[in-house]
């Protein structure tokens, strides 16, 4: 069993001396293709197939114009900044900024640590989440959180900047290409929770 795990991990990372990135699609596809998903479940729970948190980005935060970072070419990112292919509409609010911030903070703090169920019945973010302290230059309007997948420990970085009746948004995976729809599902859940509080327009357009 251990030998099979080592073989799989080696193949997903490019083999000996390889440099290919480990991805959600790569791991799930490899395990599924081998027809041994149930056999690898104990190894995943034991951490033998992860975690794979990736390298924390060093270029997040608020830009000089109040926007957030855009997205690269991979489809595992959504942002209110950048090219149309990865762009989402900002959340909008018709209440005071302080109340809007309180709403957003409440939704982020209440995000289930056990993850949320998607439309197809799957669970995302089952590895938990944490809301980090905003940087000193945020004026208290910037929120940054990390969300982790359960089986393999992939980490996604999520940012919000509140002000002027709008909330800039960015949700992106650190590694790989496809995120299997995780970032879109997460933002949609947060949008629904904010809309339920009233005074919000949260149509992301994804």
UniProtKB/TrEMBL annotation:
InterPro entries: DUF1499. Pfam families: DUF1499 (PF07386). Keywords: Signal. Residues 1-17 form the signal peptide. The keyword Signal applies. This is Uncharacterized protein. It comes from the Eukaryota.
